[in-house]
């Protein structure tokens, strides 16, 4: 299969995988987290972004490279390391993907409400149908790649415009990137979890092997795609950070009910508010697509029947998410619990990948870079500790 993938296809799939991962990360939660932490930490949040980017790159490079070398999806690698572990990983990813997809669908409804005045539930249903349409077409993979790339560029361009209108203190932001006045460890963990947590970690890696990009000969392409993915998500994070910093540096107060919307409106008036609608809808609907595709990719290898009907399962996944949002709304208690579980997915998956990297029956004669292993181990320990803390503090919320 590898021989049939020409250079043009490789470049297209590489960009598609990068944008699938990046736009999966840039969802409603991403916009809110970035806004809230910037308001709290001001220019010092630049240091948090820098550290999280370095951790994100370490995690993505480790995971994507092992997936590519083995030619297997993450759940199959996990089962090879320890029989049954792949099913646990798949269950966690699918649960997290479904719960957060309800939030993504809600975000799409909110974006449609801002843009067209539609009831959020009506906007969510329309967005659901559009997302499903991508997987109905014959070349679903190519359609998904193009869709995420276009909306990714739209989000970045519009946020760039709002950043310039906000007139942030660029010098102060640059200085605090390396010399912060305060440090918030929880902010770092939250950003890492929001960028490479849960299903997001595997979105691009699974897309690459589904397109036939696997084997040692493709490692340069895989590494470049992984770094590009983090680069796109990080660029969006930096632009939004600067926009928020510009607004709050002027002494303006954000609306606690919808912080990101107030940033866009305070920076660029009514036009800014409409731009927020476009950005929110784009961020949400691309995350819907990414969550559905990646979550289903975790159960495809467990049954040939599921594999043959993967598109139908993806469509069903989107429909169920939308149905729950329309009937129940966003189930806060479920989101709290699954959010806590989500914090454990990255250390579990990355830990499994690091073990797999040194098993010849999985990776053959591939030699994993020692520096990546060291960075990976540090990330596993840090995220496991913070994920455990999040889980312990999340469960009591259910019984209040």
From TrEMBL:
What is an annotated GO biological process for this record, any one? iron ion transmembrane transport
Instruction: Name the UniProt key words of this record, in alphabetical order.
Output: Membrane, Transmembrane, Transmembrane helix
**Annotated localization:** Membrane
Listed GO CC annotations: plasma membrane
**InterPro entries associated with the record:** NRAMP_fam
The answer to whether the entry has keyword Transmembrane is yes
Q: Where is the signal peptide?
A: none
**Topology with respect to the bilayer:** Multi-pass membrane protein
Q: Name a Pfam family for this protein.
A: Nramp
TM ranges: 12-31, 43-64, 85-103, 123-140, 147-166, 186-205, 226-251, 271-293, 313-329, 335-358, 370-392
GO molecular function terms noted in the UniProt entry:
cadmium ion transmembrane transporter activity; manganese ion transmembrane transporter activity
Keyword Transmembrane assigned = yes
Q: What is this protein called?
A: Mn2+ and Fe2+ transporters of the NRAMP family protein
Organism for this UniProt entry: Bhargavaea cecembensis DSE10
